Amino acid sequence: MDKTVADLAAAVAGIEDGMVLMIGGFGGAGAPIELIHALIDRFKATGSPKNLTVVNNNAGNGRIGIAAMIDAGMVAKMICSFPRSADPRAFTEKYLAGEIALEVVPQGTLAERIRAGGAGIPAFYTPTSFGTDLAKGKPVAEFEGRPYVQERWLKADVALLKAELADTQGNLTYRKAARNFSPLMAAAAAVTVVQATKVVEPGGIDPEAVITPGIFVTRVVEVADARQEEALMREGAAYA
Amino acid sequence: MDKTVADLAAAVAGIEDGMVLMIGGFGGAGAPIELIHALIDRFKATGSPKNLTVVNNNAGNGRIGIAAMIDAGMVAKMICSFPRSADPRAFTEKYLAGEIALEVVPQGTLAERIRAGGAGIPAFYTPTSFGTDLAKGKPVAEFEGRPYVQERWLKADVALLKAELADTQGNLTYRKAARNFSPLMAAAAAVTVVQATKVVEPGGIDPEAVITPGIFVTRVVEVADARQEEALMREGAAYA
Amino acid sequence: MTEKLSNAQIAWRAAQDIEDEAYVNLGIGFPEMVAKFQPPGRQAIFHTENGILNFGESPAAGEEDWDLINAGKKAVTLKPGAAFFNHADSFAMVRGGHLDVAILGAYEVAENGDLANWSTGPKGIPAVGGAMDLVHGAKRVAVITDHVTKDGRPKLVKHCTLPLTGLACVTRVYTSLAVIDIEGGRFVLREKLPGLSLEQLQAVTGAELVIAGTVADLVAPEVS
Amino acid sequence: MTEKLSNAQIAWRAAQDIEDEAYVNLGIGFPEMVAKFQPPGRQAIFHTENGILNFGESPAAGEEDWDLINAGKKAVTLKPGAAFFNHADSFAMVRGGHLDVAILGAYEVAENGDLANWSTGPKGIPAVGGAMDLVHGAKRVAVITDHVTKDGRPKLVKHCTLPLTGLACVTRVYTSLAVIDIEGGRFVLREKLPGLSLEQLQAVTGAELVIAGTVADLVAPEVS
């Protein structure tokens, strides 16, 4: 079994117009910048993929990563908890112009919906958002006298993730707080694509240390010189 | 912050008649034999705790651990997925005599109910058990045309767990497949008591390697010479 | 009719349909044998409910590590690329549809794919384990079983009479006499022992066997 | 009335109520200051939604590791005993009631404990983050805030007019003028600035202040 592919273009193959993409990361930690930019390259060369729905905690920062996807016109809808950032221009401009849709989800509910998608749980109840605008239209129920909101699972066609180590079977570790949503997204997507800073042979990761077991991973590409989004931001980088 | 206690008796203090106890382990892997036996010692000395509800995947094996609790007459009800084992006499005798109650829960549903208890999710839907005797009386709902059963969270007054490493703040690692239900139970119990094979200072466990963060742990006791339940079984051990 | 496949031969036949690199869960007991018969060149990855992916054979007697066991509580070993995880994550793999194949035993299988394999009725002590989760999780749920009960009654039936494990979940049954797919609520015969007539097979099957295309010979080598 | 506590002083006051060994989440922005003012001898453990328990101060400029950030995307450091975990586990800590205290900012707090702190209405771009989860998770949810808005209107009100974050969730409010508990659907005054009369305080508060027992002086040292 060898899930590695030769390059970034092969890694992002098969992502089509209209798909739902989960993209790992919280702020810059865990953002798979190289995978995203490879997808932008394909869009620029072929006009596809477009009309994407992107699931991420945020909605892009500056002119790189998800923000650059939005700038390029690939994204029809964002599902996120916090569409603000140090430099939210890309999303803000499109949103105010009515050119991008937004589904705001409380962060814990977003995490749990993704986790449910991967775990085969179609719906669950949470106290979060009860009585607020974000619960409008959702079923509510009482348990032990306390009100809860019913939330639905969230799945994706493809997840794009950044890992620290991957073995060729797709077992993953992450670096510090770059873990965040990625293990959940790995399970919730039909196809999970991972850029790893280092790819090792099976046995190269201690079975106790595996955070995402390989069963959740479809393709792995090594990006040894991966850049951290926040570091790029501070250099004033733009991908255009 | 120092969550360690001096001995097993102090570790199991405060467990009272009628409480719900989650006990870690799947078969012998992860069974906190020394904590259980300390609780039996207290029962024998004081007549308490009794009328306990015990949550575990199984219902005891041989004459040690949970089986010895049942033999001693401390357990009023078992919540488990599989009340059979190599030597299920203790449970079987009491069950056939009508002296112990049984709630059988599919193993994945048991895990998810405990996980929900720790995660503040009062109810969720699962395909598991739909149309079977184990779904009787439970609400059902359709999502995308497929039927699901509503299941409720499961919480406990106390969890008794076995860890490999613990630091004094309660961060835990487990040994191999001894992990099983324990990280879920740690979160689902009001008081989580852990016997660890080795206790280290904060910083002694790599933050990436922590499986159960200390926030879920109340008390830690070092049991350096902890015995494995299955190994004791094979020696023919009995705790009576 | 005395000729039939041994349990090992049934397990061998089921193993031939497991693709290379498939993620597979084998039920405890008889289905565990399937792992032994993977064709050369194929390497499935085995999952056990109690939190291991990519475990291997049993260790030699005396070499067991009892913290390294499968769902049947038997000692196992690890292959390179193994991973440990907790029970919630383990059943997320199951319920979330991440397994390619689950192979389970059966008391009864109905022609609509209903499975009964966890309870022989109200007299015993009920014990379900992970079976009810597995039947709703894997992309393909197959059963291996003797074709009839010990006292000769059909295990493939019109309707199950024993408590159900899951509804309409089984898609293929490997028995001691035949390989049968469940399609459109019917038993479709794919393979049968060469010495067995269709009439003989139908006589020990509790619902109609449908023929759709070729019925191949069910042939298994001597294995154990 | 120009005298009031600075933000740092409000944060200092809130910090005095955090017990030793408490597990605490501080909202992004102003509430993050609370961590600086823990009394000597007490050591809370701080949680951040993005998957760290037991993080510490910001590193020196140039020493940042941008994979080691808090929910406000600021670089942090680790203390001994820190742990990383994924977002589902992080919000299990929140929603599951495992945090002792959450301290959040506010646009409005109503006398029944309703909180509005995520949206200033339909004109802006909505962004909620983890606030709606935090108000339902921690054992104690406190707010730190200026007593009035920048244009002088009360932030402590009879009913919130802005979109709600959570219903009846706040139990204590630390403002630039007072410390107020929410009990039985009323604002109960516990402390006020010594130079401020009850009438003056009531005049800038949008719902009745109830006196129940002693009203202590709210005194904070010069901190920044």
Query: How much beta of chain A, percentage-wise?
Result: 25-35%
Strand content of chain C: 25-35%
Number of helices of chain A: 7
Q: Compute the gyration radius of chain C: what is it?
A: 17 Å
Order of helices and strands of chain A: HEHEHEHEHEEEEHEEH
Low-confidence runs of at least 5 consecutive residues of chain C? none
Describe the structure.
- The complex is a heterotetramer, with 2 copies of chain A (240 residues) and 2 copies of chain C (224 residues).
- Chain A has one domain: Glutaconate Coenzyme A-transferase (3-Layer(aba) Sandwich).
- In chain A, 25% of the residues lie in helices and 25% in strands.
- Chain A contains 7 helices and 10 strands.
- Chain A has helices at residues 8-11, 33-46, 65-72, 89-96, 107-119, 182-188, 229-234, and strands at 20-23, 52-55, 75-80, 101-104, 123-126, 140-143, 146-152, 156-167, 189-200, 219-222.
- Chain A has a 7-stranded parallel β-sheet, sandwiched between helices.
- Chain A is globular, with a radius of gyration of 18 Å.
- The termini of chain A are far apart.
- The model of chain A has no long low-confidence stretch (mean pLDDT 97).
- Chain C is α/β, with parallel strands linked by helices.
- Chain C has a domain at 7-33 and 99-217: Glutaconate Coenzyme A-transferase.
- In chain C, strands 4-3-2-1-5-8-10-11-12-13 form a 10-stranded mixed β-sheet. Chain C has a 3-stranded mixed β-sheet with strand order 7-6-9, with no helix packed on it.
- The model of chain C has no long low-confidence stretch (mean pLDDT 96).
- Chain C has 4 helices and 13 strands.
- Chain C is globular.
- The interface between A and D is large, with 54 and 37 residues.
Write the layout of secondary structure elements.
The complex is a heterotetramer, with two copies of chain A (240 residues) and two copies of chain C (224 residues).
Chain A: H1 8-11, E1 20-23, H2 33-46, E2 52-55, H3 65-72, E3 75-80, H4 89-96, E4 101-104, H5 107-119, E5 123-126, E6 140-143, E7 146-152, E8 156-167, H6 182-188, E9 189-200, E10 219-222, H7 229-234
Parallel strand pairs in A: 1-2, 1-8, 2-3, 3-4, 8-9, 9-10
Antiparallel strand pairs in A: 5-7, 6-7
Helix pairs in contact in A: 2-3, 3-4, 5-6
Chain C: H1 7-16, E1 23-26, E2 45-48, E3 52-55, E4 78-84, H2 87-95, E5 101-104, E6 108-110, E7 115-116, H3 131-134, E8 140-145, E9 156-157, E10 172-175, E11 178-183, E12 186-192, H4 198-203, E13 209-217
